[in-house]
Amino acid sequence: MARQFVCSKNEPVVQTKAGKLRGFIQDGTYTFHGIKYADAKRFQAPEPVEPWDGVKDALSYGFVCPLLHQDTPSGEVMIPHRYWPFDENCQYLNVWTQSVDPKAKKPVLVWLHGGGFAAGSSIEHVAYDGENMSKYGDVVVVSINHRLNILGYLDLSSFGEKYRNSGNAGNDDMVAALQWIHDNIENFGGDPENVTLFGQSGGGMKVWALMQTPAADGLFHKGIVQSGVIDGFVPEKKVDGTKIVNALLAELGLKEAEELEGVPYSILAEAYNKVSPALEKAGEYVGNTPIPNEFYMGDPRVVGFTEHARTIPLMVGTVFGEFSFGPAIAAKASMPEEKKLELLKKKYGENTERFLRLFRAAYPQKDITDLLFVDTLFRAPTKDFIEKASHNSAPVYSYLFTYEFPYDGGHVAWHCAEIPYTFHNTDKVPVCNEPGVSDRLEEQVFGAWVNFAKYGDPGHAALPQWPASKPGDEAVMLFDRVCELKHNFDHNLVDAVYAVAPRFGEEEPEAPIQH
Amino acid sequence: MARQFVCSKNEPVVQTKAGKLRGFIQDGTYTFHGIKYADAKRFQAPEPVEPWDGVKDALSYGFVCPLLHQDTPSGEVMIPHRYWPFDENCQYLNVWTQSVDPKAKKPVLVWLHGGGFAAGSSIEHVAYDGENMSKYGDVVVVSINHRLNILGYLDLSSFGEKYRNSGNAGNDDMVAALQWIHDNIENFGGDPENVTLFGQSGGGMKVWALMQTPAADGLFHKGIVQSGVIDGFVPEKKVDGTKIVNALLAELGLKEAEELEGVPYSILAEAYNKVSPALEKAGEYVGNTPIPNEFYMGDPRVVGFTEHARTIPLMVGTVFGEFSFGPAIAAKASMPEEKKLELLKKKYGENTERFLRLFRAAYPQKDITDLLFVDTLFRAPTKDFIEKASHNSAPVYSYLFTYEFPYDGGHVAWHCAEIPYTFHNTDKVPVCNEPGVSDRLEEQVFGAWVNFAKYGDPGHAALPQWPASKPGDEAVMLFDRVCELKHNFDHNLVDAVYAVAPRFGEEEPEAPIQH
Fold first, then answer.
1. Distance (Å) from the C-alpha of residue B186 to the closest C-alpha of chain A?
2. What is the pLDDT of residue A509?
3. What's the pTM value of the predicted model, to 2 decimals?
């Protein structure tokens, strides 16, 4: 059925600090794509955009920050992507809202995309579209692009005062976006005093990194960290930024760091890709993540939460399988127990029986072959994060997305698999559709995200009681065919498996799975 | 509501000549993305893919041919795009079907994308998705990527036998895709003896170019040319391919044309972009379109239709505004007549009154300011094409999409504007939604496309009688709020305006429109 489309000279036009913007309305949802929230010179701090006269169109998504490597399309049935033209002039955001009345003051959700700090965009996944979340949740949704990889995170602070925060330029862009939201979102029907950050993977890391960023204090009020806590990703201490910069200068035949400002990005990226692997292997800092300095206080699990961060209500969780993207055990429903044990022993050797006992205790309903795919790389640091956050004054809510997908004979949830549910976008992602199951699960997940944004508490009528976690008591909401609230239910399993599991960046032992 | 998703080890798996492929099913629509239909060395003819054992996934769209220039996102509300990773190893196609029963023998529609012969992809527009067309039309839909620009259309024939058809390599890829369809589509429920090509802009040119390509004879049976006839785009005679190649070699400091095979594409493209403008300005051939040779017989309006081409039923048309993408006259509903005349005189000068008389005769219902935007660049050569095709043994049906969009105060149809209607994809393109109007128009347009593919006749119950055009009698179906069949209704207008209009590539006089 045709929906009502409105995009005329005067409607919808919204006044921002810098000038007027025109978006479009579809069946009541106001949409603004590609709003420029800041400008920046390469490696330097973002600045407010120049004001303009008249009305600018906000009808096309903005440029995405260029990446270091092109993606090779694969696994699209699990995570459908959208790619977009690149330009380092990439400080754009998108807004979906149900009202442009400054008195409406709806809760604001700000999506920080994943892809570490080196890749991705505000529209990279089909599931990132904000229309449904705004419509079904009656909230304002904002998603942002910002500088990535060496454009966003290369520490040139030793090479000049103007570069003093270049190691966090990407996060500085995010602060500029939050400032734009603070200054303008009222005219898009949003409440600048109720802003919730949510993000997955690198996006989750961005949430906690911004909690540790004094410049962002007061610009947001709650945070949702989805699969965004992992060991060994973001530097815990001050870094030496000179080595990678000197290697780049040598590779490019340049003398002054300032000359890097003028090198075409494709050449800069090529040089970086050439010189960085050796440094990285030697354990040196090579950019691509935020670094602790006077702008960013550091990982809260290492340096503690800042005083302000302790006041931020949190929802934090992971999914069952995370990096288990590979083929499932297609025949698990009919596979004899001994064959399953054989597969488990091939992966876990002498630990098999112990792990299996712990797995059965944690997941009595799951097939034992799921133990092959259980994630601890995110789950172990996440439960540590939750334990630490539970000492804060603000509450922390824990979840684990354990739903098995109707794919490949039954596939554990992979990294990013929960995103379509959080955005109410399962209609856009075929693999998320299971009649009789997925609509209800979507309401349960989506309701939690929206209620957390509205009230700081994810509980709602379609879920069991969901208390905040307390020190020593992780109260985990399991999102599955039947949602359950459990306490410390998998700690023994996670600790045991994590103790022997390869860390991030290390090689997995050969997968024992034959499709 | 959740749909039924199926993608297991065995379902849906289809046997092709080269091996087995797995796709997915959603509510009965079988979908296969990114099927490799050929491989090719740079500048050389495509070859069949190597056979494989086991089952390959066809779950991710394949690489898109690299472009010469990056797009700058704009006008997305008019034409929403999808971009995708690039690689010259780009011979991929996609299939949507309602059955994988070899006995089903459903009509097959093959989409040839636009973007001249230099840009675009099988998924470039959101509206190119084939699911709805397959579902609502009960047909098999195929869309294909192929080589573009200098990878697909650079004539190196003077430099070696292996390059003899490099000037048509992109079209040769299409023939390979049609051969793949001929050999395999039965196992996807399609009828290899009822294949209809349809394409818009460059895609429309591809349709008539393949009609003039003996290697494709018998591989397709009908053609739909949407806004795909224009003067001065595809060379009419044999070209001299040596100048652009020698310029490239000089720019790159190379001696032998064969060395061009090894140059990274980005460097090749940069060199081409540097040397080609001067040659192009001098009227020299610089690649980017098919060229007449023993593979491609040449423009049917110049050399005549081949004997086989005369047997191909055609549907051919344009849209009202074509390249009129700019702002509409937002206030035209309330603008005084004298002000309108002033705008018209600014554009058409002393011709204004004559043009206006002809416009009112052709379009009695339209606002006279629409005359500012009426297309003749496509329409004039298209009616010439239809006149010439009307002498063939097979029928030719003419249409013109004159619907005014509910955008910007009422916007004439722009180049590509009809595509969402032909694919039954108006649900994916907000600007195509007008309650009470667009659903019916979609059924009218879509029904014509599907019926033409099924029966070689676009007529159906929701449209007025639609005869084929005859010599001297163009019977045009006007797709609009009310669909009408008219005869030679705009010829005087089109001839008059085309006589003074700038040709393709020439500058439009300054637009008189103030938004």
1. 24
2. 52
3. 0.97
